[in-house]
Amino acid sequence: MFKYGQIADTRRTLQENITHDLIYFTEIGIGTPPQRFQVLIDISSPETFVSSVECRACASGDVKYDSSRSCSSKVDGTALEVDYGYFFASGNMTIDTFDFGGFQVKDQPFLEATTVEPIGLSWDDLTSIRGIAGLTPSSAGSILNNPSPFLSMVKEHILDRNLFSLRLREPRELLIGAIDPELFTGDLVKIPLTNKTGRYALTGAWQAEAHYLTLGDEPGIRMSLAGYTASFSTRSAFTFLPDRLVIDIWQILQFEEIMFLPPSVACEQRATMPDLTFNLAGKNFTLTPYDYTFEWPIEQAETRCVSAVFPFGIEQYDEIVLGSAFLRAFYSVFDLDTNTLGCKLALLHLVLYHRWVLTNFIQSLPCLFKLGSKRLKCVTRPGSLPTSNV
After folding, report:
1. Cβ distance 18 to 125 under 8 Å?
2. DSSP 3-state assignment of 114?
3. Are the C-beta atoms of 193 and 206 separated by less than 8 Å?
4. Domain 7-181 has CATH 3.30.70.60
5. CA 180, CA 4: separation in Å to the nearest integer?
6. How far apart are CA 208 and CA 211, in angstroms?
7. Cβ pair 190, 285 in contact under 8 A
8. Does domain 188-345 have CATH number 1.25.40.10?
9. Are 285 and 343 contacting, i.e. CB atoms less than 8 angstroms apart?
10. Do 24 and 14 meet the contact criterion of CB atoms below 8 Å apart?
């Protein structure tokens, strides 16, 4: 059984990749003896897959799962195809032992993928996805009603606390069964989760009621999300909102469509852009312009800052998706015992943000301050938020 003090056994470092460092991977082991794989962390999907040794279309040199090398493998043989939105994986169901975060999960069903193919166009390098580990609290969204590895841990009573915590900024980590109080300050802001059945692919995901969003300080420009459910996802960097709201946000914030990029602004423009606040279940969660945009390097041109807010594309759905660009602003605790999501500004981000606010306040005053032997000249234009490793 896991004990709270033994954090090291369950700490998994997340590695960034694709969508300019906003999709996250970690290592798991499958089989006996364990075969090690780098898989994408997906808190919005119950389905787990890894590339099979039988996958002829997969990149050569990739590590692939070989059931013949595992004495605990049980080949189910049920054919399965999973649509992940921007790619699909197909193959056969297999059952084997998982080593996930230091925990042994026996008889975990997963898709042994013989085909992994992109769907349509993407800004991402999808060839880097060789597997996905699902961390949903329910098997409701699973095609064959299979539990995610996290739900399997819960059902096998492996964890002392049926939760996991996630920090997507440095030091990036997934902590299973525990909360690391050194990575945030103050009390977590907790909101109740809802089990409302949605019509989109994130059925059975971690989700909460959405009330409204606000551009700028209260009262600001308020946009209603009444009747919408917010699902949390690390499968995508983007936050997906109703099309009409996104168009308004892009126009107000002066995002431009340039070349083949998502809508973007000049990065220095972020210094004067307003905050974006989501009210979820009656609690406010605020993103700065440095959270709802991310830098996109362009060869032989200036780096642009693209919008992390994107249209859902299907207006009749009453759901929004808050992706990793949203989650990276917070230290998040997904708690199945209390059926709550707890969030708090990640500690390093909080310190730097408050330093940025204080600096901008001082710089906005029409005066000269004497700091020790130095003189600080006040300006009217805010400075930039420090962004390295934050």
Report:
1. yes
2. strand
3. yes
4. no
5. 10
6. 10
7. no
8. no
9. yes
10. yes
Give the whole-angstrom CA distance, residue 19 versus residue 1: 37
* Residue type, position 331, single letter: Y
User: Are 276 and 267 a contacting pair, CB within 8 Å?
Assistant: no
- Identify which of 175, 129, 137 has the alpha carbon closest to the alpha carbon of residue 44: 137
Q: Do domains 7-181 and 188-345 have the same CATH topology?
A: yes
DSSP state of 326: H
Reading the block at residue 109, the tokens are 């069903």
Per-residue pLDDT band at 383 (split at 50, 70, 90): very low
Torsion angle of the four alpha carbons 26, 29, 30, 34, in this order, in degrees rounded to the nearest 10: 160
Q: Are 341 and 332 in contact (CB under 8 A)?
A: yes
pLDDT attached to residue 301: 81
Q: Helix, strand or coil for residue 310?
A: strand
Q: Domain segments of the chain: what residues?
A: 7-181, 188-345
pLDDT tier for residue 345 given thresholds of 50, 70 and 90:
confident
Q: Who contacts 378 (Cβ-Cβ below 8 Å, separation ≥6)?
A: 362, 363, 364, 365, 366, 367, 368, 369
Which tokens hold the place of 322?
Answer: 């808050």
**Residue 162 and residue 155 in contact, taking contact as beta carbons nearer than 8 Å:** no
Task: Name the 3-class secondary structure at 226.
Answer: strand
pTM as predicted: 0.82
Distance CA 94, CA 131 (A): 14
Residue type at 156 in one-letter notation: E
For residues 370 and 104, which has the higher predicted lDDT (pLDDT)? 104
119 is written with which tokens?
């769907």
Residue 382 phi, psi dihedral angles, 5° rounding? -60, 155
